[in-house]
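Action item from last meeting closed. Structure (511 res):
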């Protein structure tokens, strides 16, 4: 049973809640070794007649913006907002420590395992991002060992307990725990100090049986009120899946910001903040990318552009402007070609314009399969793909002639980009492949809306501006910008200057 994510606003930041099942509501804290989405599907399968509300723990995943020290308060506030302040709660392993002071009853699941970890001081290794990505390897080993090894004798595999998680379930868990690895480490330590006295049902089925006997509210509601912050996360249900949105600004003209493949729109944070004054900026993760759902469907740029139009319909935007980079530039272009009457002005940053032979080589080598591996080998694959994208163009051509004149970003930046790639999972390549298959040279001359085609000097696609200039209609401006605002190692002055260029172009001819 597929779980559905929702954001709930609290005074401490947004909390992500996964819902599954239907009937009387019940709360769950998923513990620190399985993702909330995985636990939501497990409890819904075990008891589909209950409406499960599984809270992604503060400091992790979609709740990563909540400070760990405010975890208990944020969980309580989210429960109150859903009308579940007094609802019975299942709390798995160490997370039961977060529910000790709540008003409603708490059933600690797998308390013996949590006590065993507390008695031996079991904890993840230091998780500060490292340049070689091995902190993610250490996190994977920690999560796998938490399920495989006996807490009472961690030199042996446990012979009993719940079924071991699949590689895909461990992968989903790593992505959630690694949203802010330092926060996850701190959350584990904080819960561990209170776990020695935990007691509760031995297994999930036992806990569900006890929960059924407890009184609780008849229904719950997910509040739809925006958080009232300058920037926030949201969801929108489209015909082909649930899109995750990064949003900023509450008044003014609508602007869609469309990201580069293969990760999510998270790196566009500077752009959202920079252009949100007097605008409503929405940056969706494409279906198949980031935190959006992963539908099984063919993908091309036309389909992704129609998703943008569907999103505009859902959000009530009759007309809007478009900003897109790399893959996003092509989606913006195609959106304007499909529905020119709805599009005002466009910024197309570094649309791919590559020679046919180079494109064929890219399609053959740039997009290897990225499948969850039981030992976490795919995590190092993802890290090194992301890292080498800054060293070579294309990344797989590790030779002197392909060296890029860039500095490597710091480990924290690489970490964030790698997690975006891992969030996209086995469908990361669909939008990427669609971009390289798109016939930009044929489509760009057909554009009838005012547009700025541009690129920063460090962009590996900046060479395409010369080709763009030869193809673009007269009402399309082609120019170099001081920076690529979502790239690392850009100066603040150049980023601000580039944002001004975008702002002035998009605002031209408007009262």
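Sequence:
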């Amino acid at each position: 049973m597929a779980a559905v994510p929702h954001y709930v606003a609290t005074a401490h930041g947004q909390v992500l809640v996964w819902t599954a099942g239907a009937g009387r509501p019940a709360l769950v804290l998923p513990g620190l070794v399985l993702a909330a989405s995985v636990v939501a599907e497990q409890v819904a399968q075990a008891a589909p007649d209950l409406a499960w509300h599984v809270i992604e723990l503060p400091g992790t995943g979609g709740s990563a913006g909540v400070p760990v020290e405010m975890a208990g308060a944020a969980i309580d506030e989210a429960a109150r907002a859903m009308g579940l302040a007094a609802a019975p709660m299942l709390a798995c392993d160490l997370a039961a420590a977060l529910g000790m002071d709540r008003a409603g009853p708490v059933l600690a699941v797998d308390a013996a395992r949590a006590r065993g970890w507390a008695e031996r001081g079991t904890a993840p290794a230091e998780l500060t991002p490292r340049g070689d990505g091995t902190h993610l390897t250490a996190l994977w080993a920690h999560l796998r060992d938490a399920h495989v090894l006996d807490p009472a004798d961690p030199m042996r595999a446990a012979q009993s307990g719940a079924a071991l998680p699949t590689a895909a379930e461990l992968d989903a868990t790593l992505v959630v725990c690694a949203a802010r690895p330092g926060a996850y480490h701190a959350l584990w330590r904080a819960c561990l100090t209170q776990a020695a006295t935990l007691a509760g049902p031995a297994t999930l089925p036992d806990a569900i049986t006890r929960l059924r006997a407890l009184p609780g509210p008849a229904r719950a509601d997910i509040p739809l009120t925006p958080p009232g912050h300058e920037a926030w996360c949201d969801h929108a249900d489209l015909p082909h899946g649930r899109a995750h949105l990064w949003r900023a600004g509450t008044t003014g003209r609508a602007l869609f910001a469309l990201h580069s493949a293969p990760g999510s729109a998270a790196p566009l944070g500077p752009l959202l903040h920079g252009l949100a004054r007097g605008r409503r900026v929405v940056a969706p993760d494409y279906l198949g990318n980031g935190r959006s759902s992963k539908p099984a469907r063919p993908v091309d740029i036309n389909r992704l552009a129609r998703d943008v139009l569907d999103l505009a319909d859902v959000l009530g935007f009759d007309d809007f402007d478009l900003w897109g980079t790399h893959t996003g530039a092509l989606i913006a272009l195609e959106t304007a070609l499909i529905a020119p009457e709805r599009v005002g002005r466009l910024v197309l940053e570094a649309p791919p314009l590559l020679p046919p032979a180079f494109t064929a080589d890219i399609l053959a080598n740039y997009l290897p399969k990225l499948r969850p591996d039981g030992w976490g080998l795919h995590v190092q694959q993802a890290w090194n793909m992301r890292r080498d994208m800054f060293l070579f163009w294309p990344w797989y051509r590790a030779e002197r002639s392909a060296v890029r004149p860039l500095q490597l970003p710091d480990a924290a930046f690489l970490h964030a980009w790698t997690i975006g790639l891992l969030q996209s999972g086995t469908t990361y390549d669909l939008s990427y492949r669609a971009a390289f298959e798109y016939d930009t040279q044929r489509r760009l001359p057909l554009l009838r809306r005012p547009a700025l085609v541009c690129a920063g000097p460090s962009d590996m696609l900046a060479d395409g501006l010369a080709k763009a200039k030869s193809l673009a209609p007269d009402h399309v401006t082609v120019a170099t910008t001081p920076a690529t605002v979502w790239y690392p190692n850009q100066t603040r002055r150049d980023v601000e200057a580039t944002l001004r260029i975008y702002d002035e172009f998009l605002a031209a001819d408007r009262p």
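Note appended to the action item: The first helix runs from residue 36 to 46.
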